[in-house]
Each structure stands twice: as structure tokens, then as C-alpha cells.
Amino acid sequence: MAGHGEVGPTALRMMLGTHLRRLRERAGVSRSDAGWAIRASESKISRLELGRVGFKQRDVEDLLTLYGVTEPRERDRLLQLAHEANNRGWWHRYGDVTPDWFDAYLGLEAAAELIRTYEIQFVPGLLQTADYARAVARLTPQGARSEDEVERVVDLRTRRQRVLDREPPLKLWAVIEEAVLLRPIGGRQVLRDQLDALRTAVERPNITVQIIPIDTPGHPAGGGAFTILRFPRRDLPDVVYLEHLTSALYLDKREDVDTYTQTLNLLASTGPPPQQTADRLTSLLNQLPA
Questions:
Q1: Whether the Cβ atoms of residue 167 and residue 110 lie closer than 8 Å to each other
Q2: Residue-range definition of the domain harbouring residue 29
Q3: What CATH number is given to the structural domain containing 130?
């Protein structure tokens, strides 16, 4: 959709996978039979339909034939989609400083029209200053990054933030635990500059931030941070992203997405309203030691 997010390879794989699943179900073909037709396993068909892996042109051709898709224009459209889905996104050049499982998220982020996130450890990446991102990049369990690698991570973070300035811009709604804004990652001055940057960011119409007070007795989001991505294409379901230390989960089943959406809605509706965020940031800034 012109003007919206970059419909990169991750989103295109999801779109094509959804189309192929619908065609398979309409034709009454099992995943096992579909796998046999392309000399693959049932699990391979499942991964293809979820957009988790790339598509071979020959496999798509064979599946379309199996599913009874004979109209030349429809076949050409889906084969072109398969070709485009195998292209690499701009973020691929940063693969040396990002884990493989994060690549899919970068593609989804670029394609999204709305991102809602709940954060308990760091300021959301799309709102981080360069110095804050630099300090976060140095917090790695795999051993110290070189300074060149740290700068590449910061470059990637800065490049990602362009989605907030495109036309139309990505809409970002972040619910942040107040403890995040008290943690002096990178030192007091880095935190001060980050809080000031957040105060500026919330003035933008496409950015909403809510702060959950540190003295809140408890809430249902006890499982940790998560992100929900929504896309302008109806072909693409909402996706919940859960990041772990060495991997990530991407959930798009309706019941999973609904559970996380309801949890985030409850957090947003019971926490202080966004209109109070700028004043709270000012208060936190004033409390910082000089």
C-alpha cells in the first residue's frame, strides 16, 4: 500500500503464506500431501504458510498446480510475490551485529502501521537516543562488542527510527514501567538526555507514551515485555513479538493476539493517561542528581 510501511520480505512471506494456506484449504489438500508434492515435510509446509522461510519458485509453482490454480494472471501474481519475498531488506546489511531471529522483527516493524509495546527493562528502541542505544548495545551476554560493532548497532537503531518520520508515519504507543526511567543506563547524563528526548517525542501526534508508576500494586502483564504489530494490509494478521535472551516468538493466532491485546488495553486504561506523561517526565528529570 503506497505511502505506508515498507512491505519488505518478511511481510510479503506472510502474505504469500496466507494465500497458499487458503488455497490449500479450499482445495481440500492436507499439509502432508502438500509437503509430498514439493518433496518436503508437513512441518515445512507449516513454516511456508506462516512466512517463516523463503520460497522456491519451483515449490510455489508445484503447490499452485496441486491447488488447482490454473489462471495465468493469478499464477503470475503469486509467483511474482514469491520472487519479491525472497529479496533482502535494507536491514540485512546489519546481520553481523543482530541475531538471525531478530531479522523477522525488523521486517515486520518496517511494514507496520501501528506498534503497541509494553516495556519493563529499556526505553523502546524506536525512542532511544544514540547515547542510550550505545549503552544498551554494550550490555551483551555474549561478551563485549567492539566499538565498531556498537556503532553499527546504533546506526541500525537510528535507521529504524525513520518509520516515525515517513508519510504517513508509524503510530507508536508505548506503555513503560517507571522503573525503566529510573535506571541510569549509560550514566546520569545519558538518562537525563533520554528523558528529555522522550518529553519531546510525546509532543508528536503519532507517539503516545504512558508510564506505569513504580508504586502500582500489580497488573496482569506479569509475563514480561511484549510488542503488538498491526499492518495496513488486511492480508496480514496482527503479530505479537516476544523477545528472549537467545530467541524470539512471533504469535499470530487469534486467541494469542487477543490475550495480549486485552492485557495491553487494561494496562492503558488503568494507568495514568498519556496527557500526564510530559509532566511525569519533567518530575523525573527534576529528581535526578545534578
A1: no
A2: 9-85
A3: 3.30.870
CA of 194: how far to CAs of 133, 134, 169, in Å?
A: 10, 12, 22
Are both 52 and 169 inside the same structural domain? Answer: no
Residue bearing cell 508445484: 62
* pLDDT tens per residue across all 290 residues of the chain: 334 445 567 778 888 888 899 899 999 999 999 999 999 999 999 989 888 788 999 999 999 999 999 999 989 989 988 888 887 778 878 888 888 888 888 888 988 999 999 999 999 999 999 999 999 999 876 667 899 999 999 999 999 999 999 999 999 999 999 999 999 999 999 999 999 999 999 999 999 999 999 988 777 767 789 999 999 877 678 999 999 888 888 888 889 999 999 999 999 998 999 999 999 999 999 999 87
153 in the same domain as 72 = no
Q: Cα-flanking dihedrals φ and ψ of residue 140, to 5°?
A: -125, 135
The reply to whether 276 falls in a domain is yes
Q: What is the pTM of this model?
A: 0.82
Give the CATH number of the domain where residue 20 resides: 1.10.260.40
Map 29-43 to HEC letters: CCHHHHHHHCCCCHH
Q: Which residues are bridge partners to 108 per DSSP? A: none
Buried b (16+ CB within 10 A) or exposed e, 86-124: eeebebeebeebbeeebbbbbbbbbbbbebbbbbbebbb
C-alpha cell recorded at residue 63: 503447490
Domain endpoint, select from 51, 85, 119: 85
